[in-house]
Amino acid sequence: MTLTIDVARSAPRDADAVGIPVASEGTVSRSLGLTRARLAELGFEGKPGQTLVIPTASGATVIAIGVGARKDRTPAAMRNAAAALARAAAKCSTLATSLADVDGEASRATAQAVAEGLVLASYRFTNHKSDKPKGGLSRVVLLAGSASEATVRAGAQRGSLIAGAVTTARDLANTPPAYLTARHLAERAEEIAAANGLEIEVFGKDELERMGCGGMLGVNQGSVEPPRLVKLVYRPRNPSGHVALVGKGVMYDSGGISLKPSDGMHVMMKMDMSGAAAVLAAMSTLKALRCKTQVTGYLCCTDNLPSGSAFKLGDVLTFRNGKTAEIHNTDAEGRLVLADGLSLAVEDKPDAIVDIATLTGAVLSALGTRIAGVLGNDQKWVERVRAAGERVDELMWQLPLHREYRKLLDSNVADMKNVGGPYGGAITAALFLNEFVADVPWAHLDIAGTMNSDSEDGWLSRGATAFGTRSLIELVTSFTRS
Where is the Cytosol aminopeptidase domain (predicted)? Predict the structure, then answer.
């Protein structure tokens, strides 16, 4: 169900729930119908994201939503408060709330964050359920004073647009692999490009052979489904710079000959194309957001499956830029498809490159499920990428691109191996990718830990998170040549 967000000065008559912000200090709105002392007796203290549903004899249900102290009301906190409110009102149809205009101090950033939280927390993937949920929250009206209505509306529109892109990426990553092959994703990309003013080229197996994209072709050898490399370009007038985005699009990763164990992680390998989904979804917003940066996106899409024709340990692949790699683990396939995408991106001569990929279990072990790893060859660029993530509450932690570990990739028969041993896997994977970015400022986002959420938590819903989508949008829309 699509959640519609409107802005008005007063609550509509058909609202069946009203969300009232309550700070952790100061007076409590009379419309709540309870004193602070009574709220405390009920265990409600106004902490950020805390909710209390207050049934009424007639009229709309009242929901108290905690917003904490004034100093705590960052966009991240307000996004999570809005998410909590959406869940508390999940059984209602129309919700009205002044959450975007707390204490009459509306800001565009707050309204954007509130809209994002409402939409993202309401997300559910039900495409393959026979008994689909009925009813539920379908409309939210953000209440604003007359002086701030335009501000709230502008922020809400931007937030709804960005959250819509995130839901697109989540839908793609949640879709079972039989329903979303490389061909299907390329077709979806063509639809999105046509609707959003993007140039698009789609390269199939024959074109990839002529282009010398041995990484893409090698990983695809075991699949009956052909690969697709999709190039998208957003080209504004008088661009302020040029950024390239490269997304790993392994539609399903069995591990190939290096077969993964049959466990819960294997089931989630339909999400191994989350990087490509994030790039596609981010690019879908750029025209509407009037982004001034030229952005080129590459989606590197294929399955990685075992069969009689699958690539083998000991094989040597030759990539687009002419470098070669000896295969020591076919489950280290993401770096192989990214190598071709990064090589092509360098040929476009961008100011900077970001790749995003569900690349290593090592980053999950190191940083857990809420923090992505970021590495790169240019400190200023890495810091800009990390700062963009922090602004949208997609946390990243920089790992060192320790050049001393490059020797772990040395091969007797090729330029390098595709794995560097049992330790420091996130770093050696990034060092492998570094071989394909020349001297262009580059950052690598490893989102293997953050691709999935097992619980409802803040703006996260169960399943694919689409982590990185909002960071990429924030990064390219704020980009200027340094």
Answer: 329-336
317/167 Cα distance (integer angstroms): 36
Q: Is 260 a catalytic residue?
A: yes
Using 50 as the pLDDT threshold, list the residues of the chain that sit under it: none
pTM: 0.97
- 64-87 pLDDT tens trace: 999 999 998 999 999 999 999 999
String of b and e for 170-180 (b: at least 16 CB within 10 Å)? bbbbbbebeeb
Confidence at residue 351, expressed as pLDDT on a 0 to 100 scale: 98
Distance CA 89, CA 57 (A): 17
Which segments of the chain belong to CATH 3.40.220.10? 4-166
Q: Which of 151, 68, 70, 69 is nearest to 106 (CA)?
A: 151
* pLDDT recorded at residue 127: 87
Which DSSP letter does residue 460 get? B
Q: Give yes or no: 370 in active site.
A: no
Token pair 């590495």 in the structure block, residue: 375
Name the catalytic one among 188, 320, 335, 384: 335
Euclidean distance between CA atoms 60 and 65, whole angstroms: 15
* The predicted structure's pLDDT at residue 1: 61
What is the DSSP pairing of strand 228-234 with strand 199-203?
antiparallel
Task: Confirm if 375 and 402 have CB atoms less than 8 A apart.
Answer: no
Which residues lie below 8 Å from residue 37, measured CB to CB, with a gap of 6+? none
Give every CB contact of residue 46 below 8 A, 6+ residues apart in sequence.
22, 23, 24, 25, 39, 64, 66, 67, 68
Every domain of the chain with CATH number 3.40.630.10 lies at: 175-477
**136 in the Ramachandran plot: left (φ > 0), alpha (ψ -120 to 50) or beta?**
left
Specify the CATH number for 175-477; select among 3.30.200.20, 3.30.870.10, 3.40.630.10, 3.30.470.20: 3.40.630.10
Please report the pLDDT score of residue 179 as a whole number. Answer: 97
Per-residue confidence (pLDDT) for residue 190, from 0 to 100: 98
d(CA 20, CA 111): 15
Q: Which of 229, 247, 410, 365 is nearest to 302 (CA)?
A: 229
Cβ neighbourhood burial of 360 (10 Å; 0-12, 13-18, 19+): buried
Backbone angles phi, psi at 91, to 5 degrees: -90, -5
> Residue 440 is which amino acid?
V
Catalytic residue among 47, 205, 260, 370: 260
Domain 4-166 is of which CATH architecture?
Answer: 3-Layer(aba) Sandwich (3.40)
